UniProtKB/TrEMBL annotation:
Protein's UniProt name: Terpene synthase
PANTHER family (UniProt xref): BETA-PINACENE SYNTHASE-RELATED, TERPENE SYNTHASE
UniProt EC number: 4.2.3.-
Keyword Repeat: no
Family stated for the protein in its record: Belongs to the terpene synthase family. 2-methylisoborneol synthase subfamily.
UniProt keyword annotation of Metal-binding present: yes
Reactions it catalyzes: (E)-2-methylgeranyl diphosphate + H2O = 2-methylisoborneol + diphosphate
Cofactor: Mg(2+)
Top enzyme category: lyase
One Pfam short name: Terpene_syn_C_2
UniProtKB keywords: Lyase, Magnesium, Metal-binding
Length: 376
């Protein structure tokens, strides 16, 4: 067995916690990493900073600086994404609005360790499909979202991602329905693209995390339908399973490597990834609060719920959300320092990419028109 001390010479202050971490993975039961592939490279350290947002009058968000801004690559990925959406009939009548939203730019910002347009496109397609299911099924009333129909629609979304075994003529009926709904077609098509670059374990991870996210959407739909007053803590508990963690499960697939399942789901690694995903989605809640408040049946949003629950202004509620975000990012940063002791180049690459995802997502939310209350 390798000498554990050889893996503890990097970050300082890890002490006995690092020894315990190594012992957890060196007990002979869990493979700590697969053979390093050509896609796993040493990345420069991320720089964390207090970053202004919105009009600059709000408290800043603690976040890594954006690693890469490549407008040419972003435009290429975005145009390929729009072509794909047009081919499958997604966002019919709204394709220019979809183009201007710039999901291709989001993915290029959020995956700065990936230069291959096809691998960036797989992440862009999968994210666009998830977002479409959110818009058309769960969130946007004007697009047909209806909490009474949500659960049944999401049950079919699960089948579009993870096809059930054949069941004679009943499968024919299922296939007819899946092929008639552009949202379901987008989920199937995007998942097929992911599968061309992923291992079976990675595909199962994406399927599982999608279903986990949709369970939270069903909770939101039930709350909207009943008119129940939802406490912020209850929403946040659901939101942590409906976060950008779902998008982040694509990081190593797009990057051309794999964090082995028994390491990816190790509790301390999982906690770090969930923290990153939740921090990123709080940024989303902050930017979307005003637009969601204007919906005739507003979706759950941390800022709106805190304001209603505490009887405070939206600004005061947003300040509380900012503080929570900053605490989570600081905790994630500490997680990464601790986990750096584990002898896995794939994990180190993944943790770095999680932080880079935070910085890129912040940049996109600050510049997209998706959350503008004057969007046409």
């Amino acid at each position: 067995m390798p000498d554990p001390s050889a893996f503890l010479a990097g970050p300082t202050g890890l002490g006995t916690s690092a020894v315990r971490l190594f012992a957890e993975l060196a007990d002979g039961a869990v493979p700590v990493h697969c053979a390093p592939g050509p896609r796993v490279t040493r990345q420069p350290p991320l720089t964390y900073a207090m970053r202004p947002w919105a009009d600059g009058s709000m408290p800043p968000l603690y976040c890594p600086l954006t690693v890469r801004v490549d407008d040419k690559l972003a435009t290429l990925v975005n145009e390929r994404l729009v072509e794909w959406a047009e081919e499958i009939g997604l966002h019919e009548g709204r394709i220019e609005q979809f183009r201007q939203t710039g999901f291709g730019r989001l993915i290029t910002l959020a995956h700065p360790d990936v230069d291959d347009p096809d691998r960036l496109l797989l992440a862009a397609q999968m994210n666009a499909a998830w977002w479409a299911s959110d818009d058309y099924y769960a969130d946007e009333t004007e697009l047909g979202a209806d909490p009474e129909l949500l659960a049944g629609r999401l049950a079919l979304a699960m089948s579009s991602m993870d096809a059930p075994p054949p069941a004679d003529e009943f499968t024919e009926q299922l296939d007819e329905h899946l092929s008639a709904d552009p949202v379901l077609v987008s989920l199937t098509s995007a998942r097929q693209h992911v599968a061309r670059h992923a291992t079976p374990s990675q595909i199962a991870r994406v399927n599982l995390t999608s279903c986990q996210m949709w369970v939270s959407w069903n909770a939101y739909g039930a709350w909207r339908q009943s008119g129940e007053q939802v406490e912020a803590w209850r929403y946040l508990a659901a939101r942590q399973h409906d976060s950008f963690y779902t998008s982040m499960t694509l990081i190593d697939i797009a990057g051309g490597y794999e964090v082995p399942a028994n390491l990816f789901y190790k509790p301390r690694v999982h906690r770090a990834a969930m923290r990153a995903g939740t921090a990123a989605v709080i940024v989303n809640d902050l930017h979307s609060a005003l637009k969601e408040a204007a919906d005739e049946r507003p979706d759950c949003n941390l800022v709106l719920l805190v304001a209603e629950e505490r009887g405070c202004s939206l600004r005061e509620a947003a300040e509380r959300a900012v503080a929570l975000h900053n605490d989570m990012v600081a905790a994630f940063e500490a997680d990464c320092r601790e986990l750096a002791a584990l002898p896995s180049p794939e994990l180190r690459q993944f943790l770095w990419a999680l932080g880079a995802w935070l910085g890129g997502s912040f940049e996109w939310h600050s510049t997209t028109n998706r959350y503008s209350t004057t969007e046409t």
